[in-house]
Amino acid sequence: MERLGMITIGQAPRNDVAPIIKKYLDGRAQLVQVGVLDGMTKEYIEENLYPEEGDYVLTSRLVTDESVIMAREKIKPILQEKINALEKMGIKQILLLCTGVFPGLTTESAYLIEPDHVIPPAVKAMVGSRRFGVIVPLDEQKESLVSKFLPFGLSPSFGVASPYHNDPKSFETAANELKDKVDIILLDCMGYTEEARELVSQATGLPVILSNAIMAKLTSEMI
User: From residue 91, how far is each of 24, 134, 192, 219 by CA, in Å?
Assistant: First the structure.
């Protein structure tokens, strides 16, 4: 059976997101999960990988269901090691389970599927000339994400709700902030679930795009 490598920037297994990926794989491939933070304690992560002023900020989930915040440049070398390890296992296709931008990641022969290369142009095709909204996990991510969408002629309005806090109210607040400003909304983190999409859709009455569902559908076509 084919194998699809999946790297989370948190800890594996990602029991919140993996079912969405597996749904579209439909038994055609085995999902091999690894995490950048595997084996690390929350205390270690906070002491060694926490962002400093000006860092590109990311967030993800631990197997304890806790969330952590990290600096991209601090985890990037570990991420590259995980890519190399999956390649050594003979895995030919690797999905990065993060919508953040990671310049300079490399493989020898495997195909690395990076959501930041796929989602902005795909969303542009769906949004067209309509007003575009994006919900992100952290307030400090809003500014850094503008440059991801700008080359595609997208100038989003932002809302904030973390997929890693069990707080439906935050989704309702973000939805209410956006519903009169936009016509379509993207949940721009691979940690958002179908439940989050439904919450935002019901609160706004608008189409809501789930990042991991887009990636799962497209990746499944390559298996």
Answer: 19, 33, 26, 14
17: CB partners within 8 A, 6+ apart: 8, 97, 190, 191, 193, 212
Asked whether the predicted pLDDT for residue 143 surpasses 90, the reply is no
pTM above 0.90, yes or no: yes
Percent helix / strand / coil, the chain, rounded to 5: 40, 20, 40
> Which amino acid belongs to residue 203?
A
Helix segments in the chain, DSSP class H: 18-25, 42-48, 72-88, 115-127, 141-149, 168-178, 194-204, 211-220
Q: How many whole angstroms separate alpha carbon 77 and alpha carbon 98? A: 15
Tell me the pLDDT band of 222, cut-offs 50, 70 and 90: confident
Question: 95 and 7 in contact (C-beta within 8 Å)?
Answer: yes
| Beta carbons of 196 and 167 less than 8 angstroms apart | no
Q: Is pLDDT at 112 greater than 90 in this prediction?
A: yes
- Are 156 and 149 in contact by the 8 Å Cβ rule? The answer is yes
Region of 147 please: left (phi>0), alpha (psi -120 to 50) or beta. alpha
Length of the chain equals 223
Pick from 7, 191, 190, 4: nearest CA to 81: 7
**Taking phi first (over 0 means left), then psi (-120 to 50 degrees means alpha), and beta for anything else, what does residue 135 get?**
beta
pLDDT tens per residue across span 147-200: 999 999 999 999 999 999 989 999 999 999 999 999 999 999 999 999 999 999
